[in-house]
Design a protein that fits this description.
CATH class: Alpha Beta
Oligomer: single chain
Number of strands: 5
Largest sheet: 5 strands, mixed
Strand content: 25-35%
Shape: globular
Strand order of the largest sheet: 1-5-4-3-2
Length: 88
């Protein structure tokens, strides 16, 4: 069982989504407490990505502490902009 943590500002885009979309994404985030499969980001960044339709959630995993930290939740275009900032 993993513990979930949320980086301040993770919900900048999430908070502006409609309630139905928020519910779908929140359900997927909560599933991460028990789910172990995630897609690793490329280019050596230490993030993992969850895909929910056109939306993305980026998180970091600390396996020893059994901790997953959510860093971002938004649509694909917002994710691309966020992703490019992480590479800098």
């Amino acid at each position: 069982m993993y513990k979930l943590d949320f980086k301040p500002g993770w919900d900048i885009y999430f908070s502006k989504m409609d309630k139905k979309t928020q519910g779908q994404i929140w359900k997927k985030i909560q599933k991460q407490k028990t789910e172990t499969k995630s897609r690793h980001m490329r280019f050596g960044l230490e993030f993992y990505v969850l895909e929910i339709g056109q939306y993305r959630v980026a998180l970091k995993l600390k396996e020893k502490e059994k901790l997953k930290t959510v860093w971002f939740a938004g649509n694909h275009k917002q994710y691309e902009r966020w992703y490019k900032r992480q590479q800098a």
